[in-house]
């Protein structure tokens, strides 16, 4: 079954590949997003991937919903044009106690030893599903079953930038001091907001991500504070 | 050329530096920001011959008082029906005024409207973040909030004379706004959709640059109270599980998991934001095709206005 196209206001089309989060549904979102990046149409604004859909914003002075839908349908018919674009990004993480206030609680709740929680987190194969909430907040899907926990009942305020946090199947490296109800299991010196004008964000949606453990010295050497 | 320097004697809440906005980064979690009323902002810049997205200051109902401590500059004050005092002379928004060292510029809440824009004949010095001086509300990055006590510097400042800027009728608060239903209108039953498009809604004082919460009939969704997170737009009408609708605005979060009953036509978002808390608004549902037609006719009208603006100001200055 093909995706559903929904007109949004006077300036966007939502392409919906499903209603539940799954790997195949998300893969379809990423495939269309990449195809569109390679073959944009006149009047395109921006494309914003969600978990199960892609929102395509356009300039109504230049084009309209029907023309945009036709263009996107054309891209869907030629998926072969895309592929091999998923990069592997490495993110460093230090699990020292003061960086990981929730590690003991995660261990207690999962019945694992502290080191086993860390091993499970490092073993995860992560993929950037989407960004949201705040600048550079990339939702990384792929937290192993053994350490999946529901988020805490209430968020904590003032969580440091660079915190590595998990909830359910998702992991995130924070970029700003923000509240979070996720479990804080480490701190990363890797900057998701790169500060590089040419490539201001470390990941693109669809990239794969691997965590690599560093000790305090490695954390500081990589620019951690 | 010399700079004009202002000291901020008083700045109310939500007074910020804005430019054309941070475009194309929603996919990275960065919302567009930029002016709440994009038309008024563009007119302020056009009145001085600035580029449409040149950085300026957005003034909220809290108001702004600036003392010019050095130099001299023409300032366009456009948007809403604000009261303006320029060097002791009383006027209103929709004017270009000259301010010299020793003079005070006051912009404060007037009979109508919620947002007013200052653009300067020169270059407003402002910190950029991700290529834009627009203040990103949630983080405060970019040009940032304008704070009492700080300095505001306009580089390459010049005097261009004074004059009125015509205030078109479409710049006034718009209480009837057009929207296209969805993308999650299927989560609401027929009666709820009817309430949405037929009943009046009140703007509450839960109103800032991120959005405005509305008071009106309860719009409780049927079934799913949340959906997998997806993109939000400026103008999305999001309904939380309690049935309360919020129209998302310039500093909205980029994604969210609440269903959206409708999305406003972009031009009407600029009109809506000039309404004030306690004012009543109504939603009119139109088709996507009609929405594009609206966008095009409003776009043509706006460009026609801008084209005429140059002529009108030359006569005045």
How is this structure best described in words?
- The complex is a heterodimer of chains A (225) and B (317).
- By secondary structure, chain A is an alpha+beta fold.
- The radius of gyration of chain A is 19 Å and the shape is elongated.
- Chain B folds into two domains: 167 residues, no CATH class; 114 residues, Cyclophilin (Beta Barrel).
- In chain B, the strands form four sheets. Chain B has a seven-stranded antiparallel sheet, with no helix packed on it.
- Chain B is elongated.
- The mean pLDDT of chain B is 95.
- Chains A and B meet through strand 1, strand 2, strand 3 and strand 4 of A and strand 17, strand 20 and helix 4 of B.
* CATH level-1 class of the largest domain in chain A: Mainly Beta
Gyration radius over CA of chain A: 19 Å
Task: Give the largest chain-chain interface (CB within 8 Å).
Answer: A-B, 42 and 42 residues
The neighbouring-strand order within the major sheet of chain A is 5-13-6-7-10-9-12
């Amino acid at each position: 079954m093909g995706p559903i196209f929904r007109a949004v206001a006077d300036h966007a089309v939502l392409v919906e590949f499903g209603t539940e989060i799954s790997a195949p549904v998300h893969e379809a979102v990423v495939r269309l997003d990449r195809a569109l990046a390679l073959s944009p149409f006149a009047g395109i604004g921006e494309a914003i991937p969600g978990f199960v859909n892609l929102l395509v914003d356009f300039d109504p002075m230049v084009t309209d919903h029907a023309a945009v839908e036709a263009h996107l349908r054309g891209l869907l018919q030629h998926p072969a044009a895309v592929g091999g674009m998923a990069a592997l990004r490495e993110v460093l993480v230090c699990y020292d106690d003061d960086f990981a206030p929730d590690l003991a609680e995660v261990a207690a709740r999962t019945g694992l030893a502290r080191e086993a929680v860390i091993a499970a987190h490092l073993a995860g194969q992560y993929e950037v599903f989407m960004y949201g909430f705040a600048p550079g907040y990339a939702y990384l899907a792929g937290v192993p079953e053994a350490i999946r926990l529901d988020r805490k009942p209430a968020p904590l305020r003032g969580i440091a930038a660079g915190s590595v946090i998990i909830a359910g199947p998702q992991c995130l490296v924070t970029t700003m001091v923000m509240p979070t109800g996720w479990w804080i299991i480490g701190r990363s010196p890797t900057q998701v907001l790169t500060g590089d004008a040419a490539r201001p964000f470390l990941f693109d949606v669809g990239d794969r991500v691997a965590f690599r453990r560093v000790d305090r010295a490695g954390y500081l050497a990589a620019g951690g504070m | 050329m010399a700079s004009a320097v202002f000291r901020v004697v008083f700045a109310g809440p939500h007074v910020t530096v804005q430019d054309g906005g941070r475009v194309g980064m929603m996919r990275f979690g960065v919302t567009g920001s930029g002016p709440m009323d994009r038309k008024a902002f563009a007119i302020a810049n056009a009145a001085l011959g600035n580029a449409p997205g040149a950085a300026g200051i957005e003034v909220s109902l809290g108001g702004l008082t600036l003392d010019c401590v050095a130099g001299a500059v023409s300032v366009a004050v456009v948007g809403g029906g604000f009261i303006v005092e320029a060097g002791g002379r009383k006027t209103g928004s929709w004017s270009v005024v000259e301010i010299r060292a020793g003079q005070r510029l006051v912009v404060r809440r007037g009979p109508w409207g919620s947002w007013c824009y200052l653009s300067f004949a020169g270059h407003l010095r402002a910190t950029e973040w991700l290529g834009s001086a627009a203040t990103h509300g949630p983080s405060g990055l970019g040009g940032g909030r304008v704070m009492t006590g700080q300095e505001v510097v306009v580089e390459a400042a010049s005097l261009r004379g004074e004059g009125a800027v015509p205030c078109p009728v479409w710049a006034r608060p718009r209480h009837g706004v057009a929207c296209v239903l969805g993308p999650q209108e299927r989560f609401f039953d027929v009666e709820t959709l009817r309430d949405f498009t037929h009943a009046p809604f009140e703007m509450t004082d839960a109103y800032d640059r991120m959005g405005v919460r509305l008071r009106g009939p309860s719009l409780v969704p049927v079934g799913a109270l949340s959906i997998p997170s997806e993109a939000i737009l400026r103008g999305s009408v999001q309904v939380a599980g309690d049935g309360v609708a919020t129209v998302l605005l310039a500093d909205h979060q980029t994604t969210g998991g609440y269903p959206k009953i409708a999305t406003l036509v972009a031009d009407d978002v600029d009109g809506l934001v000039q309404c004030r808390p306690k004012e009543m608004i109504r939603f009119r549902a139109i088709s996507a095709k009609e929405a594009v037609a609206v966008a095009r006719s409003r776009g043509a009208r706006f460009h026609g206005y801008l084209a005429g603006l140059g002529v009108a100001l030359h006569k005045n200055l």
